[in-house]
Amino acid sequence: MRILVIGSGGREHALTWKLRESLSMEEIYCAPGNPGITQEGECLPVDVSQPQVILELARQIKADLTVIGPEAPLVTGVVDEFEKEGLWIVGPTKAAARLEGSKIFAKQFMQRQGIPTGRFVVADSFDAAVKALAGFGLPVVVKADGLAAGKGVVVAKTREEAERALDEFVRQKTLGRAGERVVIEECLTGEEVSFIVLTDGQSVVPLVPTQDHKAVFDNDQGPNTGGMGAYSDDSILDERTRDIILSKIVVPTLAGMAAEGNPFRCFLYFGLMMTAEGAKVLEYNVRLGDPEAQPILMRLRSDLVDLFKGIREGKLAAVEAHWSPNPSVCVVLASRGYPGKPEVGKVITGYEAAEALGGVKVFHAGTTFHERQLFTSGGRVLGVTATGADLAGAIERAYAAVGKIHFDGMHFRRDIGAKGLRRLTRAPERNNLPVRRVSGQCKI
Fold first, then answer.
1. Could you give the 3-state DSSP secondary structure of residue 423?
2. Contact 82, 57 (CB under 8 A)
């Protein structure tokens, strides 16, 4: 089987790495890829911003399977184009991808379907948005409607900060058309959990739970980013909570999408806030999270292509997903200036020594190779990912690997996984919970 992965970040590196292990794989390509991905397969330096370009590339290399990493091609309808031609692609249709492509669509869908989420108001102008702020306490969340590469959400601690975000989004159009309409939303409190599933529209295979770290600095301080690290450990959710999430959030979401004529297939990401009233949905993503993909795929023991086949054939319920019981931790190394304007072009050293520690994989995100040297080329540069016999061991190994790597201006959070350690200290009996496969059937 010839496999094509679309994207250039850490998630796509992890996907290519895992797909390369498949017994079905004969040749694997990634477009446009990155220097780390060249160690897994052939990178094709093609601009894949348009669905038709991706379709033509798949034809040229005679891809049997195309896997889309980032959200933008899904939102613009690449899956629809492939399906018209009868070509196998992994991802939701354009209509289904609105769950991520439009925050307004997602919030109104949750409201229609009775899916627990925060109270919100939609505003179509700056004046309407400012007026809506009066109905919310502080802090308050301001969200741009469209895709904004992780920069469209502001948790404002003051009214002035909220109005400044609205001015940037709506008046100054710093996010382009993505910020023309906004959502004003109550700020939910609790711990965030990334709950990602694979689905064929009817059956559900939950992936192991993860917890992302969005704020740029330790202790969740500073502005939000695309993610400064994530960890996966079974203790994040006990089985009862996981079953409630499946029955009250996941299955109703899939049933609602199908009932509205937009059946959803493939990865669906539920960004949850575990509040005192239970889990509530912060957002949907219509693909694997990044950096969540890295620790998740480090734990996956099953053949990923087999899972994709289950989706294609509508027989996902018959496919077993097996996971390593060992926790995994991903620490993102970022450039100076991120999440603002990052400094790039800095020489990276020590990444090979990091992987030599064993139990470590360094996933590339913002790197470029020139004259036998690796350089930074983006805000999030590397995702240093490690496994361990327990969460403390995985954290220790990940940071030992981070200590081997250097580039000028490198910064990273030093508390990835710390919430998990505190949770285990509070409730040690939840450690080493058995991993089980859970299926949910939509009543359509």
1. helix
2. no
CATH of domain 2-91: 3.40.50.20
Question: If 0-12 CB within 10 Å is exposed, 13-18 middle and 19+ buried, where does residue 396 land?
Answer: middle
Helix (H, G, I), strand (E, B) or coil at 351: helix
Q: What is the pLDDT of residue 382?
A: 98
Domains 2-91 and 191-421 share a fold: no
Class of domain 191-421: alpha beta
Per the CB < 8 A criterion, the answer to whether 230 and 291 are in contact is yes
**How is domain 119-186 classified at the CATH fold level?**
Dna Ligase; domain 1 (3.30.1490)
CB of 44 closer than 8 Å to CB of 33: yes
Q: For residue range 53-79, what is the model confidence (pLDDT) as tens digits?
A: 999 999 999 999 999 999 999 999 999
In percent, how much of the chain has pLDDT > 70?
96
∠ CA 183-212-442, nearest 5°, is 70
CB 201 within 8 A of CB 134: no
Cα separation of 83 and 86, whole Å? Answer: 5
Residue 386 CB neighbours (<10 A)? 31
Q: Is the pLDDT of residue 436 over 90?
A: no
Angle at alpha carbon of residue 230, lines to 186 and 29, rounded to 5°? 115
Burial class (CB in 10 A: 0-12, 13-18, 19+), 312: middle
- Helix or strand or coil: residue 222? strand
Smallest Cα–Cα separation from 363: which of 39, 20, 19?
A: 39
Give the residue extent of every domain in the chain. Answer: 2-91, 119-186, 191-421
Q: What average pLDDT does the segment 421-429 reach?
A: 77
In angstroms, the CA 361 to CA 29 distance is 20
pTM: 0.94
Q: Any alpha helices (H) in 316-417, and if so which ranges?
A: 351-355, 391-402
Q: What is the mean pLDDT of the chain?
A: 94
